Amino acid sequence: NAKAKGRTREGAEEQLTTGDLLSNRRMFYLLKGAFPAVQINSEERVDTADQETVSWDRSIPEDIKQKIQPKEVPAESVTVWIDPLDATQEYTEDLRQYVTTMVCVAVNGKPVIGVIHKPFSSYTAWAMVDGGSNVKARSSYNEKTPRIIVSRSHAGKVEQVARQTFGNKTVIIPAGGAGYKVLALLDVPEKNQEEADVYIHVTYIKKWDICAGNAVLRALGGHMTTLTGEEISYTGSDGNEGGLIASINMNHKALIEKLPDLEKTSHK
């Protein structure tokens, strides 16, 4: 079941499904029950009347425990961002390959743990800055004529500007879901996962859409910044106004310098 919950700044209708609400409720209360002092930001509003008891003993799977070094940080420095169902529009269209659920942990505004899970294939990518991961970068990327992955629902002017910047041979890949687009930059063993060299988004985007991907890229030595190269802070407001460009094992600064016109479109 889907209903409209509003419109994006570009005028596209935003969908809200039962899947969004059920996933959100379970994720929110599991985390809140385990870490009551931690700030949790979620895409969907949590109705306290629907409070659910979800127990978790905080145990960590052995394969993950072997890769990470536990670190203690003050609870007040931690912000958790959850997207219970990324690519809701595609979910309603039964384009399930784009759908992910995401959790991100930020400390003092910096993304340090990211989890991107594909519920319809059970694939999970996770990474922790200075702490390990189960995913890696691909062996090569094309910087000269990169394959650029963009949003299929609000691409803005990115396709036109990308071709002006990198040439007409540039391949533009329209796709749903910010989580899916980050996975497209990595070595992901999924038959329905496309591959890209750069991820560009030129319009306003919510932080729960991008925090997990930002953490994963950061842990692997990649970058996700605004279109002007600023790091995105995961404190304060829930939106990122400056668009984004994401890459890994590429000259990120050089990519940004090639995109002088994109930032002007990001606030429209």
UniProtKB/TrEMBL annotation:
Its main location: Golgi. Keywords: Acetylation, Glycoprotein, Golgi apparatus, Hydrolase, Magnesium, Membrane, Metal-binding, Signal-anchor, Transmembrane, Transmembrane helix. One of its GO terms (molecular function) is metal ion binding. Pathway: Sulfur metabolism. Mg(2+) binds at E43, D83, L85, D86, D209. GO terms for cellular component: Golgi apparatus. One of its GO terms (biological process) is skeletal system development. The keyword Transmembrane helix applies. Its EC number is 3.1.3.7. InterPro entries: CysQ/Inositol_MonoPase, Inositol_monophosphatase-like, Inositol_monophosphatase_CS. Exhibits 3'-nucleotidase activity toward adenosine 3',5'-bisphosphate (PAP), namely hydrolyzes adenosine 3',5'-bisphosphate into adenosine 5'-monophosphate (AMP) and a phosphate. May play a role in the formation of skeletal elements derived through endochondral ossification, possibly by clearing adenosine 3',5'-bisphosphate produced by Golgi sulfotransferases during glycosaminoglycan sulfation. Has no activity toward 3'-phosphoadenosine 5'-phosphosulfate (PAPS) or inositol phosphate (IP) substrates including I(1)P, I(1,4)P2, I(1,3,4)P3, I(1,4,5)P3 and I(1,3,4,5)P4. This is Golgi-resident adenosine 3',5'-bisphosphate 3'-phosphatase. It comes from Daphoenositta chrysoptera. The gene is Impad1.
